[in-house]
Design goal:
By secondary structure, this protein is an alpha+beta fold. It is built from 4 helices and 3 strands; from the N terminus they run αββααβα. Helices cover 59% and strands 13% of the residues.
């Protein structure tokens, strides 16, 4: 899962960077536009411009995830959210290393900040992880 997330994320960002001029908006689906923007913060534009804070936050989150995964690796499906979270984080880290910021390109209406597939993978990975943790706790009760 990790490799798939990184590959799809990087390929989609490359396609956007080479097909949409920064500032341009293209209709994609009803209520969804494609844009080419740069994000200096974390997912969905949080903590913009705080490179040290972003690096510390991502590092702590990945460390906590790896510790949790190591302690619960035998739990069914634990590999899925772990791969999604680490793959999404690494996809955005690759952008930061190469460009100093992350390419975001999916834009919803009503002022929602643009995001990318790595952000989506991280968000879905967190939701799946919460479901797995909840099911594990229910099974123990």
């Amino acid at each position: 899962m990790l490799v798939v997330v990184i590959a799809v994320d990087q390929l989609s960002k490359h396609a956007i960077e080479h097909s949409i001029v920064p500032g341009e908006e293209r209709k994609f689906l009803p209520g969804v536009e494609l844009v080419n923007t740069r994000n200096h913060g974390v997912a969905f534009g949080f903590l913009p411009g705080n490179h040290i804070g972003v690096t510390v936050l991502i590092s702590l989150a990945l460390l906590a995830l790896l510790v949790y995964f190591a302690l619960h690796a035998a739990q069914p499906w634990m590999w899925l959210p772990t791969g999604m979270l680490i793959g999404g984080a690494l996809g955005n880290i690759l952008d930061r290393v190469r460009h100093g910021s992350v390419t975001d390109f999916i834009k919803f209406p009503l002022g929602w900040p643009p995001f990318n597939l790595a952000d989506s993978s991280i968000t879905l990975g967190i939701l799946i992880l919460f479901v797995l943790v909840d099911r594990s706790r229910q099974a123990k009760s």
